[in-house]
Structures are given as structure tokens and as C-alpha cells.
Design brief:
The structure holds two protein chains of two kinds. Chain A is an alpha+beta fold. Helices cover 23% and strands 41% of the residues of chain A. Chain A folds into five domains: 130 residues, no CATH class; 90 residues, no CATH class; 85 residues, no CATH class; 116 residues; 93 residues, no CATH class. In chain A, strands 1, 2, 3, 4, 28, 29, 30, 31, 32, 33 and 34 form an eleven-stranded antiparallel sheet that branches. In chain A, strands 5, 6, 25, 26 and 27 form a five-stranded antiparallel sheet that branches. In chain A, strands 9-10-21-22-23 form a five-stranded mixed sheet, with no helix packed on it. In chain A, a hairpin with a 2-residue loop joins strand 22 and strand 23. The chains are: A alpha+beta, B mainly alpha. At the A-B interface, helix 2, helix 3, helix 5, strand 30 and helix 8 of A face helix 7, helix 14, helix 17, helix 18 and helix 20 of B.
């Protein structure tokens, strides 16, 4: 008799609560997944040690319960054993699939060389400590920005931000004259204080946009320029811009909807103006906003019977889109520039004095900019004050997380970065994909926070990407990547075709069609996956055992009974504990029996 | 068995099939019905185009004109195509969502509105504009905006269908997948002298209908014959075979799934009556009717597979019809083995519910046949994994039905212990079938996933919910082995656990809305309706449990006695 604990581990009294517990966890997990996304749930639940322990307990329960019913006599017990051992095998196999397989994406192009490096899900942190020891680890970032692991190679991993940017500090030890100012923007109403550096050089720091406001610094070469810089902005010259047709110029605002006869006998009509041209999902033109970001005009041209529709774009280098070539004209659209209407300009006079000019929707202000004196430029309740002024500024770059400028206006720029700190408490941001040197008191760390890449033992070259459409329509029926796989070890090349549900295998790797880019048919993304052969073997064996086992367990006894009666050698078998009462004895196939009576 | 009464049942069922409830005699428009149109990625008969267009705009396949005569889809469509009525003023366009009607100032009690009414409604126009702008900026739309876009698409479709000379009915000269042309673009594919007679023919048909309205439709029969054969002569190799087109027209008008539910319903009534009168005779007559129902539904599936050229279950609509079929088929087989009428009694109403739902909710369960998305294409596993999984849902639905039959017995005749015992055994047997099928289905899905996504198991929500559903049945089945639940418990479990099946089948796509299985399932809706039906049902379960426990107390029995 096995000890009590072993009997309990193999008992149905453990199995039922365990099944219920697993079901409850899974229900919770799927709902949690619709909130936080698959990656997090995979990390926090399905791949977690406690969930693994639960599945392991289930496997132990199944295993012991099967052993405890030895010897497996009769179809029912055989079926039971097959099913439950099959489950053990499949649990082991599925766990191995999840934990032992390697998967990555490979982007290939017809117009680029062969690819060998796949992008594996997740990120990597590689650190070279001051003692030259090199370590690397997988980084997992939870949706709230916390990072796993929290400690690595003597660094504390404090957090992660989707959006960081390189900011600058200026020090006053430059060789040449270069004015830099540090401005503080403060709003009581929004509870915000921001500090920004502006410098005449380098050019990238002479102007910047902070939310709705535009900050800039300008050096006036002489008194005239100083006057010009400090005077109010000229009113916009043209509301909708100008249209150049041949050597003639039209104000678009004046001619919208009014056909204009031209000398060549052509009549021109501006039908529509889109300040921010887009095509919607139905392929119809529209404007995404009122700002002149991507201005476009629809122009109708006619000459006698000939008609043409043109789309003329304001951006330089965009040729007009024409419905026909019958009418030839040189048309260019000179759209209004996207100019900030609100700006705060710091003007450096030739004798290094500072003045400001603030333009806002309701007015204009100008005056001398003095340290400690706040200027109200008129943007909400923002106050701007000069906190620091350098005359020989030199730039020092640093990475900081981007802060929201005002509620609802998070800047769209910035790159992800990892926040780390040394044991001494000094903190740094590591930008994603850029190896960085961290200067600390103990010496220099070199750290790289980068995508996880893996090198394949072969090369993949995309020869052709074929998109088939459903007949007579634009909807996609199938896309196929035609690839050449080159194995450098054997120096052989193989041509393969990969399409949905039809992957190809090469050197133990499975290549499947993952996604494509409807806007660029020269590129294709392949999924590459490898799992040890025995893992596949486990899952397939387990699958067969289970299906076979359930069939034998449920229907084996009845079939065996019938078989014995049929062959008339039967000694009646004791009815299994939960067997159903048999229907009236049938000696023929049931459906035929129906007609026999 | 009563072979004679069984045969009488079969013949009666057959008669019900042949004597149609509403089918007009041949009207000479057969050539127009089977005119091939290349639309939405396949070639289909004009009859299907008419049904789909009218149903999509109007919400029903028939339309009652102001003069009072009800026109079928084809006549309605022809008056659009030939542009012989003032479609600006026909109250034809469906606006069903009441809050939208209230928001844009339409009469909330009317269902259909005229093109002009809707086009001149500036609030609706503003709402549509707003919805488009949100779509451009990838902002989530409100329900009103989504509904407004639906109305807009109906208006577009109507605008396009009226006088549509671009309807692609002119076959491509040599390419089997080439783009077909409309009549007025026929010269792009053929010489003008070839195309001109076609256009003349069309104009004559138009003229005839214009002069006499829908009553003159029969007079265009010969013109239609000419047009059809002329189009076929243009490109005989490319033009689809008449047999295929006629088959689809036949499918549209035969309504096999609607006929099946009628037969199931009649079989149910006969079976119910057989409890009290003419026991054996009515029983076999009911079985005969039920068999006809199964046969006509199988025939319907066969037709649909022939037309679409793909496995039977590829979208939500087909899965609902298929589950109805599975319930009936599994019940029929088990009934033949056990002959105690409960399987058919439990199955028939459920099969009817599935088929009626599929028939009456075209907005949620879209019956039109469209090309498959690439993921589902060219696929052996689709044709075995999905039918297996959905057959397991059907088994569990049948168990749910038996559970309800038992529940009513517990409520009304709690003393009939023999019958209750029998019901529990019947239920157990269906649950076995379900467990076997669901396990097989999950494993087949795993094997497909191994090929398609590169892993056997990856905790995708649909996978996980199929497993949860399995666990929800396994736990009570194992609990029964140790005596934690008895016969009554099996019935309760078969009802309560079905919610997990509902979640796996419907909820993952519409409630959770995540995961890799999210193709081809439409937009969902009616969550509230389903939730309230489930809630009411659970209330019934609770009542019975309370009643049952009270009964236990009075009899001073322990649950173990109930085994």
C-alpha cells in the first residue's frame, strides 16, 4: 500500500479541485490578457513558475493515478491508462514547446541582399563593467514600465520609458562666443514647470517646440536686424497659398470653384483644397486636419471635349497625379507655410544683451529679458523666466524621459530607453539600440540595451513576392514568398516557396509567411521557428494516446462486449463502475437493426 | 419498429419539401437569375446579387411597393438595375438602430426610409463625416457612428445599384481570373460591333419594364435568354457552367436550412404528442420527419460546399447552422441506439433555435458566400479541425437540452425516479461524445497550429477557452466518480458548463476580441441579449436546485443516495 500522501497525490480528490483551479486561473488569464496584451500574460502567468508548478502537479496526479490502477485489465482501464499517460506526455510536450523553442522574425526584400539575422521577441541588455567582465540578460518590460530583472551586473534597473529624448546641458567653457539661455516655463493652472536650453549654436538647439509653443533664439548681427527680429510678425500673405500655372500666379482663395480661362484655351478650376491630404479607408480623399501639413488641390482642366482631373501637391518633389495626359501644363502649388503663430523669441543683440519677442494669438509683447524676471507671453498662464545665461556655451548631451508638456499633449517624438542606476545611486538612461558609455566614480560601464537578434546557420534571400488577388477585385487571395536558402557549410542553394499554411523546413528551421506590407510589395516578413525534434515527437505521441485512450475508455467496453457476443465465446465481464446500462442486445450494426424489427 | 409509420413520416416530410410554402411558378426569368456576375471576388448568378443587395439595403429579401404588391428580391433588383422607378422616393433603406434615429431626428418607429430623406438629413451627414474623420485618425467610433456608416454603405449600394451599367457581366475574353466588364465598358474587352448588340438588348429590356412596370417582367424573358447566350458566346471557356449557376439559384430558392427547421419543429410536436397518444406510431412518424429534416439539411450543406468550393464551416454563420446540424445528427444516432424519445425531444428545439437564429440575424450572422481570407485558404486542417470542434459544441448543446428536459422533470415530476435516472444516463452518454470530440478537436487544432504558427500550444485565447470548456466538463465528470455530485449534478453541470462553450465559440471573438483566431467572424453585437438569456437560464437552474435540495431534506436523503 503506498503511503497516504502518494495516494492523495494520485487521487481524484486532488484532481477535481486542481482542474477547477486551473480553469479559474485560465479564465482570469484570458480576461487579463484582453486588458494588458499577450506578452505580459505569457510572462506573468503562462510561463511563470507557479503556473508551471500547477501543471506539474496535474501531471504527477495523472501519472500516479494511472500507476495505481495497475494492472490495466479490460478496455476501460487500458483506455484510462492511455488517456492519462497521453495527457502527461502532452503536458510535457506543450511545456517544452513554450520554453524550448526559438522563434524570430526576418524581414527580407527582393531588392536587398540575403538576410541571416532574425529578430527574436524581447530585448537584451549587455553590460561591460569597469572590471571588463561582460554579461548579458533578457529584459522583460511590464506594461507599467517596471523591468524584470531588477538588478543586473551591478546596475539597478529602475524603469523604462517608451519616449525619451536626448537633451542637453550647456557648460560655459567653450572656445568661441556662443550665447545659451536656460528658460523656465511655469504654469500654475497646469501645475507644470519645464526647463529648456536654447543656444545659438549648434543649430538644433536654436529653436524647439514645447507643446503649442515655439521657442527660439536668434543672434542679431546689427541694430536693423535686431529691430526686425523684435517687431510683430507680418500677417500671413496668402490664406490658401498660390497656384503657379505656367507663368501666371493665382491666389487659390480667390479662384476656388471659379473656372479660369487660360491663354492656351484650357479652362482651369480648383475644385477642392485639402490642407492635410489623406486617403481614407474607402480610398476617398479627405483632410485629416486644418493645418497645412500635406496640402493638396484638386484641379479640373478642360479644353473642348478633353477633360482631366489633377491632384496637385504642395510638398516639393511630389508630382501632380493626373487622370490623363491629354492636357499638358506646368502647375505648381505654393501652399502657405506651416508657421507657428505663437512663439517666444530670444534675441541676442550685437553687444550680447538679451531681448525677447512673444507673439500669441491675442497680441505681441517685447522687452528686455532679465534674469529672475518672469515674462507672461500669453499662452494660458505660462510664465517664462531666464534662469541661466552662458556666453561661451558648449553642449553636453544626455538622455532624459520625455515629460508631458500639457495634459493630453504628449510629444510624438522620442525613442525607448532603459533607466539604470549604479550602486552609488547615479542614474542614467540607456537609449534602445545605441551602446552607451556610463561614466561613474568607479570607472566606465559600457551598456547596450538592444533588440534580441539571432544569427541563422543559413541565409535567406527573397527572390520574388507574389500577391494574388481575388478575381475582379483588389482583395488579397494569397501572398507567396519565393526564397533562395543558402547554406554556407555545404555551399548549396535551394529554392523554396512559402505561403500561408504552407511553411517550408530547412536545416531544422521552419520558415513561414508571417506578414507583408501592402504599400511595398518588394518586402516580406518571414517567421522562423525551431524546436527540438523530440518536442514535436512528444506532442504528437501524446495527442494520439489521448484520442485513442478516450475512444477505448468510452466505447471499448461496449465494443468488446459485442465482439464477445458475436464470437459467442463470452464469459460476461463485470460491468465497470460507471458504465451505462446497455441497450437491448443488438447483434447487428445498430442502424441496420432499426430496420430489422 | 414500425417501418410503415416511419416511411409515412419520411413521405410526409418529403411532401412538405416538394410542396413549397411560398414559391412562384416559373416566370421566364430563369436566364436573368442565372446570369453570371463577377462580384466580390467570385462569379455568382444575378439572383444571388439581387438577394444580397436587397437584403443588405432593405434588411429583408422582399419589398412591398407603395401599390401594395410584394416583390421578390429579383424583381426589386431589376427595377433598380433598369432604373424604372423613382428610387429617390421609395422607403427602402433600412435604419434599424433606434438611438441613431433619435439622434438625427428620424421617426424612431419607422424602419425604412427613402434615399432622399436620408441624403438630405444634415445631422446624419455630419455624423458620417465625423465617423470618417475618426477612422482617418484611428480613433474608436461610437455605436451611433458605426451605425451611421452602415447606413451610408446602404445608401452607397443603392446609389450604385440603380441604373448600374458597370455591373460586371461581360466575361473576360481569355483570362479565367481576369476582370470582367460592365455593359458600357464592354468595348474595352471586345470589338464595338460585338458589344453593341448587348447594349441594345439591355436597352430593350429596360424599355419594356419602363413601359409596364414589374408586370411586364415576364415579357423580357426572350430578351434575357438572348442576352445570356450572347454573353456566354463571347467567351465560352471563361463563362461559368450553367449547372453551377443554376445550382446556386436553386440553393437560394430552395431554402434547405429553413425547410429543415420546419421539419424539426413538426417532428418535435409529433414526438411530444407520442408521449400520450399512439405511442409507437407517432414515435416512428416523428423519426421519419426528423430524418427528412436531417437529409434536407445535409443536402443544403452539400450545395453550399459545391457553390463555395470549400469546407462546410468557415465563419460564424456556417458554424451556427453546422451546430444545429450536429445536434440533430448526434441526437438521431443516439436515439436509434436508445429509442426513448428524449434525445429527439431535447435536440429538435435546439436545432430549430440554431437555424432560426442563422436565418433571422443577417447583420450578425452574414450568410453570403465570400472568398476566404488567406489564412484559411488552401487548407486541409480547416476542413477537419473546425467541424470537429463545432460538432463537440453540438454534443454539449444536446447535453444542455437533455439537462433542461431533466430539469423540467425534476420540477414537475420529481417522483419519477426511474425516468430521472434514465435521463442522467442519456446525458452522460452525450457528454462522453462531446468530450471525445472536443479533445480531438483541440488536438487537431494543435497540429494545425504546429504547421501554421509553428507551435502546438501557445495559450491563444481561443485555444485556452476550448481547454477551459473541456475542464468545465471534466471536473464534474470526475466529481461524479467519487460521488461528489449525483445524477442531478450531471444535469446541472451540463447546463452550467455550456456557458464555457458559448464563451469559447462566441465570446472569445466578441467579448474578449483578442487573439489569433479573429478572422471571418463579423462584428458581433447582441451581447446583452445573450447575457440575459444566459442569466434567465441560470435562474431556472437555481430554482430547480433550491427545489431539489428542499426535496432532499424532506426525504432525508444524502447526495450519495442519489448516485
Amino acid at each position: 500500500m503506498p503511503p497516504k500522501i502518494v495516494r492523495f497525490l494520485g487521487s481524484i480528490r486532488l484532481a477535481v479541485p486542481l482542474l477547477i483551479a486551473i480553469a479559474v486561473v485560465l479564465i482570469g488569464a484570458t480576461f487579463y490578457e484582453s486588458e494588458v496584451g499577450s506578452l505580459t500574460v505569457q510572462m506573468q502567468i503562462y510561463k511563470s513558475p507557479w503556473f508551471g508548478a500547477m501543471m506539474f502537479l496535474l501531471a504527477v496526479n495523472l501519472g500516479i493515478s494511472t500507476l495505481s490502477r495497475w494492472p490495466w485489465k479490460g478496455p476501460r482501464k487500458v483506455g484510462f491508462a492511455l488517456t492519462h499517460w497521453g495527457l502527461v506526455v502532452i503536458i510535457a510536450g506543450s511545456a517544452a514547446v513554450i520554453h524550448l523553442s526559438t522563434e524570430g522574425m526576418l524581414l527580407v526584400r527582393t531588392d536587398a541582399g540575403p538576410g541571416q539575422q532574425i529578430r527574436v521577441q524581447g530585448d537584451l541588455l549587455e553590460v561591460v563593467a569597469p572590471d571588463q567582465s561582460r554579461q548579458q540578460t533578457d529584459i522583460f518590460i511590464k506594461p507599467d514600465g517596471t523591468v524584470h530583472p531588477q538588478q543586473f551586473a551591478g546596475l539597478q534597473l529602475l524603469g523604462y520609458s517608451e519616449r525619451t529624448m536626448k537633451t542637453v546641458q550647456f557648460t560655459d567653457n567653450g572656445q568661441v562666443d556662443n550665447v545659451a539661455v536656460n528658460l523656465e516655463l511655469h504654469s500654475d493652472r497646469m501645475g507644470q514647470t519645464l526647463a529648456r536650453w536654447l543656444a545659438v549654436a549648434p543649430a538644433g538647439y536654436s529653436q524647439m517646440d514645447v507643446g503649442p509653443a515655439h521657442l527660439e533664439i536668434m543672434q542679431a548681427a546689427d541694430a536693423a536686424e535686431q529691430r526686425q527680429l523684435l517687431s510683430p510678425p507680418a500677417p500671413p500673405q496668402s490664406q490658401l497659398g498660390q497656384l503657379q500655372v505656367g507663368d501666371r500666379t493665382f491666389e487659390v482663395a480667390d479662384i476656388v470653384g471659379q473656372p479660369q480661362p487660360l491663354r492656351s484655351g484650357v479652362t482651369l478650376e480648383v475644385v477642392q483644397v485639402w490642407p492635410d491630404f489623406r486617403l481614407d479607408q474607402a480610398g476617398l480623399p479627405g483632410s485629416a486636419s486644418e493645418a497645412f501639413r500635406n496640402p493638396a488641390l484638386q484641379v479640373k482642366l478642360s479644353r473642348g471635349d478633353q477633360q482631366a482631373q489633377w491632384f496637385v501637391f504642395g510638398k516639393a518633389g511630389f508630382e501632380p497625379v493626373r487622370s490623363g495626359d491629354a492636357i499638358d501644363l506646368a502647375i505648381a502649388y505654393d501652399a502657405p507655410a506651416l508657421r507657428p503663430t505663437d512663439y517666444f523669441r530670444v534675441v541676442v543683440t550685437p553687444d550680447q544683451q538679451l531681448f525677447y519677442a512673444a507673439a500669441f494669438s491675442k497680441g505681441f509683447a517685447t522687452g528686455e529679458l532679465l534674469p529672475g524676471q518672469a515674462v507672461m507671453p500669453g499662452w494660458a498662464d505660462f510664465k517664462i523666466s531666464l534662469t541661466e545665461q552662458l556666453t561661451h556655451a558648449q553642449v553636453q548631451r544626455q538622455i532624459v524621459p520625455l515629460m508631458p508638456v500639457a495634459p493630453g499633449t504628449l510629444a510624438n517624438e522620442g525613442a525607448p530607453a532603459l533607466h539604470v542606476a549604479t550602486a552609488a545611486g547615479q542614474d542614467f538612461w540607456l537609449p534602445w539600440g545605441e551602446p552607451t558609455s556610463l561614466a561613474t566614480a568607479d570607472g566606465n560601464y559600457f551598456a547596450a540595451f538592444s533588440p534580441k537578434l539571432l544569427t541563422l546557420p543559413f541565409y535567406v534571400k527573397l527572390d520574388d513576392f507574389i500577391v494574388e488577388r481575388n478575381e475582379g477585385s483588389e482583395s488579397v487571395a494569397m501572398w507567396t514568398s519565393q526564397v533562395t536558402l543558402f547554406d554556407p557549410q555545404t555551399d548549396t542553394a535551394t529554392r523554396r516557396r512559402v505561403w500561408m499554411n504552407h511553411p517550408t523546413w530547412f536545416r531544422g528551421w521552419k520558415l513561414a509567411q508571417a506578414s507583408w506590407n501592402p504599400g511595398d510589395l518588394a518586402q516580406s516578413t518571414l517567421q522562423l521557428k525551431r524546436e527540438p525534434w523530440w518536442v514535436t515527437g512528444l506532442t504528437w505521441t501524446g495527442s494520439m494516446l489521448i484520442v485513442l485512450g478516450i475512444g477505448v475508455m468510452f466505447y471499448g467496453p461496449a465494443i468488446a462486449k459485442r465482439w464477445r457476443r458475436w464470437t459467442k465465446t463470452a464469459t460476461p465481464e463485470p460491468s465497470p463502475e460507471t458504465a451505462l446500462p446497455e441497450t437491448e442486445p443488438a447483434t447487428t450494426i445498430p442502424i441496420l437493426a432499426v430496420f430489422g424489427k | 419498429m414500425k417501418l410503415i409509420t416511419f416511411l409515412i413520416g419520411l413521405v410526409l416530410g418529403g411532401l412538405l419539401l416538394i410542396v413549397p410554402l411560398n414559391q412562384s411558378s416559373p416566370d421566364g426569368l430563369e436566364s436573368l437569375r442565372s446570369l453570371a456576375v463577377q462580384l466580390d471576388g467570385r462569379k455568382k448568378p444575378l439572383d444571388t446579387v439581387a438577394q444580397e443587395t436587397v437584403a443588405k439595403i432593405h434588411g429583408s429579401t422582399t419589398y412591398r411597393f407603395a401599390e401594395g404588391d410584394r416583390a421578390d428580391a429579383l424583381s426589386t433588383y431589376l427595377t433598380m438595375w433598369f432604373n424604372t422607378r423613382n428610387w429617390n422616393e421609395e422607403p427602402f433603406v433600412l435604419v434599424s438602430y433606434r438611438p441613431l434615429k433619435a439622434a438625427v431626428g428620424l421617426d424612431v418607429d419607422r424602419k425604412q426610409f427613402t434615399f432622399r430623406e436620408l441624403m438630405s438629413n444634415s445631422e446624419l451627414g455630419a455624423l458620417v463625416g465625423q465617423a470618417h474623420e475618426k477612422e482617418l485618425n484611428e480613433v474608436e467610433l461610437s455605436r451611433n457612428e458605426t451605425e451611421a456608416l452602415t447606413v451610408e454603405s446602404r445608401l452607397n449600394l443603392l446609389f450604385q445599384a440603380v441604373g448600374d451599367n458597370n455591373l460586371p457581366i461581360v466575361p473576360h475574353p481569355d483570362d479565367i481570373k481576369g476582370k470582367w466588364a460592365g455593359l458600357n465598358e464592354a468595348t474595352a474587352l471586345y470589338a464595338p460591333e460585338t458589344a453593341a448588340p448587348l447594349m441594345a438588348n439591355f436597352a430593350m429590356m429596360q424599355q419594356t419594364v419602363l413601359q409596364g412596370g414589374t408586370t411586364h417582367l415576364s415579357m423580357i424573358a426572350s430578351l434575357a435568354d438572348e442576352l445570356r447566350s450572347a454573353l456566354q458566346q463571347l467567351s465560352p471557356k471563361i463563362y461559368p457552367a450553367a449547372a453551377g449557376l443554376n445550382r446556386e439559384v436553386h440553393f437560394n430558392h430552395f431554402h434547405p436550412f429553413a425547410k429543415a427547421w420546419w421539419l424539426y419543429a413538426i417532428a418535435f410536436i409529433a414526438m411530444l404528442l407520442s408521449q400520450w397518444i399512439k405511442r409507437d406510431h407517432l414515435y416512428w412518424a416523428a423519426m421519419g420527419l426528423f430524418t427528412t429534416g436531417l437529409a434536407v439539411q445535409s443536402y443544403g450543406f452539400w450545395l453550399r460546399m459545391q457553390i463555395a468550393d470549400r469546407p462546410p464551416v468557415t465563419n460564424m454563420y456556417e458554424s451556427v447552422v453546422w451546430v444545429g446540424f450536429g445536434i440533430a445528427a448526434i441526437a438521431f444516432l443516439l436515439e436509434l441506439l436508445s429509442r426513448n424519445r428524449y434525445y429527439v425531444l431535447a435536440a429538435a428545439p435546439l436545432a430549430v433555435v440554431c437555424l432560426v437564429l442563422a436565418d433571422s440575424l443577417p447583420a450578425v450572422l452574414d450568410p453570403s458566400i465570400a472568398p476566404l481570407v488567406p489564412v484559411l485558404r488552401d487548407n486541409f486542417w480547416l476542413s477537419i479541425h473546425v467541424p470537429t470542434i463545432t460538432l463537440s459544441y453540438a454534443s454539449f448543446a444536446l447535453a444542455l437540452g437533455i439537462g433542461h428536459v431533466a430539469l423540467f422533470n425534476y420540477l414537475l415530476t420529481p417522483q419519477a425516479s426511474q425516468r430521472l435516472k434514465l435521463l442522467s444516463q442519456l446525458n452522460y452518454r452525450v457528454l462522453q461524445v462531446g468530450v471525445l470530440l472536443l479533445t480531438t478537436g483541440i488536438i487537431l487544432g494543435g497540429i494545425w497550429a504546429h504547421f501554421s504558427w509553428g507551435r502546438f500550444w501557445g495559450w491563444d485565447p481561443k485555444e485556452t477557452w476550448a481547454l477551459i470548456a473541456l475542464l468545465c466538463y471534466l471536473a464534474p465528470l470526475h466529481g461524479r466518480l467519487v460521488g461528489w455530485i449525483g445524477d442531478f449534478g450531471v444535469h446541472i453541470a451540463s447546463i452550467v458548463s455550456f456557458n464555457a462553450v458559448l464563451m469559447a465559440w462566441y465570446g472569445v471573438n466578441f467579448v474578449l476580441g483578442t487573439g489569433l483566431h479573429s478572422y471571418g467572424f463579423g462584428s458581433g453585437g447582441s451581447d446583452l441579449l445573450i447575457a440575459s438569456v444566459v442569466g434567465l437560464d441560470l435562474l431556472l437552474v437555481l430554482t430547480t436546485v433550491a427545489r431539489h435540495s428542499g426535496w432532499l431534506k424532506r426525504q432525508a436523503l444524502t447526495p450519495a443516495d442519489n448516485l
